[in-house]
Amino acid sequence: MERNLTLVALFAAIIVVLGFMPSFSLVSGVPISAQSLGVMLAGTVLGSKRGAAAAALVVLVALIGLPVLAGGRGGLGVLAGPTVGFLLGWIPAAYVAGLVTERWQGGHPLVVAISGALVGGIVVLYALGTLGMMAVLQKGPFEAMLLNLPFIPGDLIKATIAGFLTREVWRARPALRAGV
């Protein structure tokens, strides 16, 4: 139990620290930051439940007002901004990234980890982020999806980085891949 809590807190801290890296906002008002890399890593390294718990912890801390999001943002006001779908999407994104890695145990570790990061950290996260942008920015689905295009190259790089880091963590701590 303590080990799980420690891992969840550690990966929540990683997500927060990645938000301190310089970020910048595009036309949509959604910042490009490294925090989604942390979400991908939480899922691929910790698995579905613990990864989602780490992401949920960061979301909770942000919503209570601590400035843990890119650009020093936090508080309930983020629920009214164009990033709401991405922020709330961190939880299912980490869960799905972890689920992919858990279910595909026999595959090559690098391929499994990158696949988990891609499916959870890009497909799921973009779907929910797009819904949030549609609601807040009053855009149609196609317009909202177009606003996401500039983020894709960076997120593909982040998914690849997450894959390599996850593979190395699994090599160093094989029990983490087994979900122990």
Descriptive report:
With 180 residues, the protein is mostly helical. The protein has one domain (2-177): Arp2/3 complex 21 kDa subunit ARPC3. It has helices at 2-18, 35-46, 48-63, 84-103, 109-137, 141-148, 152-172, 174-177; strands at residues 24-25, 31-32. Strand 1 (24-25) and strand 2 form a beta hairpin. GO terms for molecular function: biotin transmembrane transporter activity. The chain crosses the membrane at residues 50-69, 76-98, 110-137. This is Biotin transporter.
Describe this structure in a few short sentences.
With 180 residues, the protein is mainly α. The protein is built from eight helices and two strands; from the N terminus they run αββααααααα.
Largest sheet: 2 strands, antiparallel
Contiguous runs where pLDDT drops below 50 for at least 5 residues: none
Structural class by SSE content: mainly alpha
Overall shape:
globular
Percent of residues in helices = over 70%
What is the helix/strand order? HEEHHHHHHH
**What proportion of the residues form beta strands (DSSP E)?**
under 5%
